[in-house]
Each structure stands twice: as structure tokens, then as C-alpha cells.
Amino acid sequence: MSDDIKLIGIVGAGQMGLGIAQVLATSGFNVLINDRDQITLNNASNIIKDNINKAINRGRLEKDIGSYSIDRIKTKNNIAQLGGCDLIIEAATENEKIKHEIFQKLVPHLQPHTILTSNTSSISITRLAARTDRPEKFMGCHFMKPAPVMQLVELVRGIATSEETIDCLKGLVKKIGKISTNSEDFPAFIVNRILMPMINEGIYALYEGVGTVESIDNSMRLGANHPMGPLELADFIGLDTCLAIMNTLHDGLADTKYRPCPLLVKYVEADWLGRKNKIGFYNYKGEKPVPTR
Ligand code: NAD
């Protein structure tokens, strides 16, 4: 039952982990957050504080709720310290090996009732669950970016996920004021099965010289009424994450239509990952984003 969930552990204090922590804390949950990178973890509280203050200033969050929420989030540098949580949301790098290792480290410290979830954008929930001691208490809980703003949480059932686990997560999503959809466990689920090939196609259009960065983004913003162009959106998501999702689609569905664009591969090889490290299809180091091609 979602009423039994009081303390939530988040693994990964990146773009998604911090956004999810903010949503949960502002909805009244206590949150423990872990990251393997000490610098990332040290910066986490200040980033969340800044984001909560911005939400208050924009009138999206009441001042009182904002102030209490900051105190509800604690950082923990050892993953074992998340052992007392009722629910875990894994939001680390989109890499299956990393995610398996996280659950392997975590499981021996957990209480029997603890539910495990992954915020993965594309990786098989059934495979992740099968390597834990509780596949029936494991499911996908896919928040969108930015988590405090986006309404949807895509819930993904693995082959062994129990109805109780699904009901519990549905209840939790409702409590935090969001809307859930259900997806079966196939590569990239629903949102990214549809969204990511479109972004990949935008990158192919750039690679083949059909248009410049600006003309591709303007075309889709103004011509298809998308709030962001595909290249802007790729930078916003993170190019490493986009590539990981395309690889999961390509490997999992064995169809050449999901072949990641070689230009996307090249950007990731250059460590041009988008907004999170200030360079991708645009350079974000100055006042205004400037296209890099
Ligand atoms: P990110 O690169 O911003 O953050 C990932 C974090 O995971 C980093 O801080 C890294 O240090 C940490 N990490 C890596 N290995 C770890 C380990 N072993 N233990 C603890 N922490 C570890 O990535 P992100 O954009 O926040 O994505 C995280 C997850 O959320 C991925 O599975 C991604 O597919 C998913 N997701 C991303 C988006 C998006 O738009 N970026 C949207 C929905 C879901």
C-alpha cells in the first residue's frame, strides 16, 4: 500500500535523481539520496535548494512547503545507508551493468517489504528484476524530465511484478499529483519507443546535410508545434542517454530502423553530452546557446 511508504531512497543524484527527490519531498516524503560521485553528492543539496527556491519565486510552490521540503532530503555516501527505505528509485546512468551492480549492492541491506524501482528509459525491467531477490516487488517507474514539472510517470511491469506492487506505485504517483500510464516491458517502453527514433532522425537530418542545427530545430518547433526542436531536446535529455536508448532499441528489437546515427555516436565519443556538461548540438557556455555545427 502506498500509505506504508514513508522513506524513499534514490540512487543517482544526476538530472533525474534530483528532480525526483524534489517532487517526493515537496509531496511530504522523506528522501535519502546516494551517488557514487562524491562531488555530485556534495552539490546535490544546493542544486535542490536552488530549484525549490526558483519554484517558489515562480509561484509554482508554496513557500512553507518549499522550506520544509529541503530538510526532508538527506544525502548518503554509502548505498547501504538506504537499507531502511520503504521504496527505492534507481536513477543512475542509463547502463545495464551499472544498474545491476547497484541492485546487487543494495539488496543485502534491504528490509523484506522494500519495493525496488528503476527510472530507466529503456532497459528491460524483467532482466533487472531477475537479478534481485524480489522480482515481484520490482517495477519500472519512469519519470519525465524535468520531473517537478512533467505530469507523466510511465509505470512498467516486469513479467514477475505483482499486482500489489503495481497498485502501490499507482497510489504513490497519485499522491505526488502526477498521472501514470501503464507500459508493458519492451525496449524503451512507450514514450521513448516513439520519441527517441524521432530525435535520432533529427540527428540523421543534420548528418546528411538536410538542414543546419537551427533549421532542423526551427522546423519542428514552428512546423510541428513541438515545444523544443529534436536537437535541443536531445541536448536537454543528455546525448549519452539518447545513445543508450537507441542502442537498447536496436539490440532489443533487431531492426535497422533503430540504428543510432553515427553523428550521435561521435558527439558522445567527444564527451559532448548536451546541457549537463554545457556542450552538445549547442554550446551553452555563453549567454545564449550557439550551434556547434
Ligand atoms: P545523469 O547523467 O544526469 O545522472 C546519472 C547519475 O548517476 C550521475 O550523477 C552518476 O554519478 C550516477 N551514478 C552512476 N553510477 C552510479 C552508481 N553505481 N551508484 C550511484 N550513482 C551512480 O543522468 P539522468 O539524465 O539523471 O538519467 C538517470 C536515469 O534516468 C537513466 O536511467 C535515464 O535513462 C533516466 N531518465 C532520463 C531522462 C532524461 O531526460 N535525462 C528522463 C527520464 C529518465
Number of strands: 10
Distance between the termini: 51 Å
The main β sheet shows up as: 8 strands, mixed
pLDDT below 50 for ≥5 consecutive residues: which ranges? none
Average pLDDT number: 97
**Total number of domains:** 2
CATH superfamily of the largest domain: NAD(P)-binding Rossmann-like Domain
**Rg value:** 19 Å
CATH topology value of the largest domain: Rossmann fold
Estimate the strand proportion: 5-15%
State the helix count.
11
Structural class: alpha/beta
Helix content: 40-55%
Order of helices and strands: EHEHHEEHEHEEHEHHHHHEE
**In the CATH hierarchy, what is the architecture of the largest domain at level 2?**
3-Layer(aba) Sandwich
Kindly report the spatial arrangement of strands forming the biggest sheet: 3-2-1-4-5-6-7-8
Descriptive account of the structure:
- The chain is of the alpha/beta class.
- 45% of the residues lie in helices and 15% in strands.
- The strands form 2 sheets. An 8-stranded mixed β-sheet has the order 3-2-1-4-5-6-7-8, with helices on both faces.
- Strand 4 (87-90), helix 4 (96-106) and strand 5 form a beta-alpha-beta unit.
- The longest helix has 20 residues, at 38-57.
- It binds nicotinamide-adenine-dinucleotide.
- The site of nicotinamide-adenine-dinucleotide has 30 residues, from helix 1, helix 4 and strand 6.
SSE map:
Elements lengths: L6 E5 L3 H12 L3 E5 L3 H20 L5 H10 E3 L11 E4 L5 H11 L8 E4 L6 H6 L7 E6 L8 E6 L5 H13 L3 E6 L6 H17 L5 H11 L6 H8 L1 H15 L8 H8 L12 E2 L6 E2 L2
Parallel strand pairs: 1-2, 1-4, 2-3, 4-5, 5-6, 7-8
Antiparallel strand pairs: 6-7, 9-10
Helix pairs in contact: 1-2, 2-3, 7-9, 7-10, 10-11
Bound molecules: nicotinamide-adenine-dinucleotide.
